[in-house]
Automatic annotation (TrEMBL):
Protein name: Deoxyribose-phosphate aldolase
GO MF annotation list: deoxyribose-phosphate aldolase activity
Protein's job: Catalyzes a reversible aldol reaction between acetaldehyde and D-glyceraldehyde 3-phosphate to generate 2-deoxy-D-ribose 5-phosphate.
Gene Ontology CC: cytoplasm
Known EC number: 4.1.2.4
SUPFAM superfamilies given in the database record: Aldolase
CDD domains: DeoC
Superkingdom, natural source: Bacteria
Length: 218
């Protein structure tokens, strides 16, 4: 298993510096990761660092809690696209799920998909599976499958629980084959990353990416 090609090499801490981004991108080139995932502020810089590579640049929208207004998420998305982002990891409104307000969630994704599809970008919808019930996870899969998102993603890494094999298996069982799964949140070892891939994940979000790859070769 070439685990490097599954990985979105990630730095999203609030204190992220220019040097952090430079290091992230240099590691991405060295290890040939699928993508880097960076704060919106650094999309342009990451694009410059990775210009001559096959690696993609992703950023986050509505991060990390997802409860910003639809209009705010649309604005963030437009700005990221202007900065030439390749992939958008969008946190859905978790409060709306807990309020059982699926009409709001449908309106949110409809507004975002219109822009993202028009500009031919990739969308990964973060549902924060660690704090959802199985029923809520299944409902999310049904809603986002209806809108044809590219990925459903488990977690931000900021909730009390991140990725789990159970969540990935449940998502895989309730999504069409063409919709991929990104597992993220608390993935620090090759063994866990491998379990998640075997459960159905096609992308892994991690900040411990280098250690994971080195462990895979050991």
């Amino acid at each position: 298993m070439e685990i490097n090609r599954y990985i979105d090499h990630t730095v999203l801490k609030p204190t992220t510096t220019l040097e952090d981004i430079k290091k992230l991108c240099m590691e991405c080139v060295e290890y040939d990761f699928a993508a880097v995932c960076v704060p919106p502020l650094y999309v342009k810089l990451a694009k410059q660092f990775l210009a001559s590579t096959n690696s993609k640049v992703a950023t986050v929208i509505g991060f990390p809690f997802g409860y910003s207004a639809i209009e705010a998420k649309v604005a963030e998305t437009v700005l990221a696209i202007v900065d030439e982002v390749d992939e958008l990891d969008v946190v859905i409104n978790i409060s709306a799920i807990k309020n059982n307000d699926w009409e709001y969630l449908e309106k949110e994704i409809a507004n975002l998909m219109y822009i993202i599809r028009e500009k031919k970008k990739v969308i990964k919808v973060i549902i924060e599976s660690g704090i959802l019930t199985d029923e809520e996870i299944v409902k999310c899969c049904q809603l986002y499958a209806k809108y044809g998102v590219d990925f459903v993603k488990t977690s931000t890494g900021y909730a009390e629980k991140g990725a789990s094999v159970h969540a990935v298996q449940l998502m895989r069982a309730n999504l069409p084959a063409e919709i991929q799964i990104k597992a993220s949140g608390g993935i620090r070892t090759f063994a866990f990353a491998k379990e998640l891939v075997e459960a159905g994940a096609t992308r892994i979000g991690a900040s411990a990416s280098v250690a994971i790859v080195n462990e895979s070769k050991a």
